[in-house]
Amino acid sequence: MQPMELLTTLLVSIGYRLPILIALGVAIVMLLDTPRGKVRSVALSALALLLAVTLIGGVLSAVPLLLIAGGNYGSVGSMNTLLSAGHIALSLLEAVGYIMLAWALVQALRRPQAPGKP
Hints:
This protein is mainly α. The chain has helices at residues 3-32, 38-69, 73-110.
């Protein structure tokens, strides 16, 4: 694999994740302007977890490309099981992040509103 092909493939991989990374960054910034409390802490933790999972998933996706670019074709086959297990673990962590985010949303929506506000 030529260096330009590798760079193009890695940039496309980053491009697929960029909208998610931007959305998570915007959500974190929006949450920083809310009052401190348990719900905010859980929501921030969930967003941080989702951000970490997205970044780690990008790195795991790039590992086979880097191995192929280095000419380690045998390593790709042997690492397939480890990479698959890593992707499964990341999917489980992502599910936990979504559940935490949903919990925080439900808690925030169940709070009584201040008098005089519709």
